[in-house]
Amino acid sequence: MTHPESPEPAEIVDFAAIDRLRPRLGKIVVASGGFDPLHPGHASNLVEAKKLGDTLIALVNGDAFLRRKKGKAFQDLKTRCQIVSFIRGVDYVVPFEIENDQTVCVALRALKPHVFAKGGDRAAPHLVPEWDVCQELGIEMIFGVGAAKEWSSSDFLAEWGEYWAARQK
Fold this sequence. Notes:
Blueprint: E1 11-12, H1 15-21, E2 28-33, H2 40-50, E3 55-61, H3 63-70, H4 77-84, E4 92-96, H5 105-111, E5 115-117, H6 131-137, E6 140-142, H7 153-167
Parallel strand pairs: 1-4, 2-3, 2-5, 3-4, 5-6
């Protein structure tokens, strides 16, 4: 049995690189998340988001974002960016961190994508803090991109923590 050649991972870049590349990127789609740990909902969001444009940028939220959200990052930002870079359809990965900011508004202002693809757990404008920035900049926000909300990274980690704690007794 032969295996197709492994795809090259997406390039991990900064905002300046996207600015330089912009003339050849076509219709830009951004999807964002902590991806900590990556689960099928995240992967389906990224794969489906690619179908919405020419270039998919995965915006990976930083470690401080995850500490504020769930107390601790399971995997560090560099590791999560590398994992996301291997998802089919992701063209570029941009690590992103702003202290004391749980949104990606600053990143959307810098990237100015045509589309912001939101996953299954964000289904209405009032649930998305980036809505106003998207309206201001003319970024189309598309809800429900990828599989319906069935998985939770936080739940996976909590269950593992309970299991591990019970084993230590």
